[in-house]
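[stage:ingest] chain + small molecule (aspartic acid)
[stage:ingest] validated
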Amino acid sequence: MSKPRIHILALGGTIATRPDATGAMQMGLGADDLVAAVPRLAALAEVAAETVSRVGSHSLSFDQIHALAAKIRALEVDGVVVTQGTDTLEETGFLLDLLLDLDIPVVVTAAMRNPALTSPDGPGNLLAAVRVACDPWMRRHARALGVMAVMLDEVYAVADVQKAHPTRLDAFVAPQTGPLAALVEDRVVPMSLPVRDAIVAARPRFASLSAATQPVALFWISLDEPGRVLEALIEAPDHLGYRGVVLGAMGGGHLPERMSGTAGRLAGILPTVVSPRAGGGPMLRHTYGGPSSEIAVREAGLIWGGRLHPLKARVLLETCLRAGLDRAAIGEVFDGWG
Ligand code: ASP
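[stage:predict] done
[stage:export] C-alpha cells:
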C-alpha cells in the first residue's frame, strides 16, 4: 500500500532555531532540516518539506496565515503539518481552522525546548504530528476534527487549545474540553470529536474576505479599571485605525461599574466583543442584574463572545470584519459559541 503524502510547511519558531556565535537562539532551520532530524518520517509517509518563512510566531501576521491557508488549499496531498512557534499557535491555528474546510488532516505543531538543549521536543512533536496526519481514523474524521494541534503526544482541537505556560514542556492545554486523542506506543488513540457547529455555521459568511487586515484591539479588564484607554480610542481620529475591540471581561461577562458607560459608548462606535478573561466560557447571559453586570453589558450593545478565549475572539472578530459583516451579523456569528 502506498504511503500517505504529507506536506510539511515550516514557518519558524523555536523548533526551527539554532544558536548564533553568542549562544542566542536565532531563527534559521528550514523544513528540510526539521525533516532530516527525524529519519523515521520516511517510513511513515511520502514527505515533502517546504520552508514558508523563518520567523518567530510572535511576529507572524494575519496576512501570512491567510497566505498559508491559500497555499494549503492548493496542495494535492493526504495531510498537512505546519511547524511554527508556540507563542501564537492558538491564534494562527484557530484562524486556519476558520479558513480551511478540508477533508485531509491539517496539524499544527511546535516545540518548547530548542534544538540546542538536551531533549528538545521538536523532533518528537514533528514525528507525532505526521503520525496523526497519517492515521486512518484521523484521516476518516478529518473534516469533523478540523485543524489540530499536536504537542507532547496529545492531540487538541486547535479551536480549544491554549498555551498556558511560557516555558514548561507541557505548556498546552484545552481546559474546556481536554485532548481529542493521545499517542501511545505505535497507536493514535482517539478519545473525542470536537463540537464545531459554530465554525461550520460561520464559514459561508467568510466566503469572500477582504485582503486588508482589520486591526482589532484587545483589552484585559482588571480591578478598578477606569477605562481611559477606551475613552482615548473613542475620541482619537479614526479611532487609531482600529475596526473592532475585544474586552477580556471579568467572570461571566462583568465590567467595573466606573468604565461600563465608556464600554457602552465604544460598542456604539466599533463592534465590541466581551469574552471571558478567565480564559474560556461559556459566560452568563441573564443571571446578575445591576450596573455593569452581564444583563446591563449586553443591553448596552456589546457582542457576547460565548466560550471563546479573548485571543480567539479577536481572531474571529478580525475575520468577521474582513468579511464585511455588520454588527448584527457579527453578533449572530459569535452567538454560535454559546
Ligand atoms: N517565540 C517563539 C515563537 O513563538 C517561541 C516558540 O516557538 O515556542 O516563535
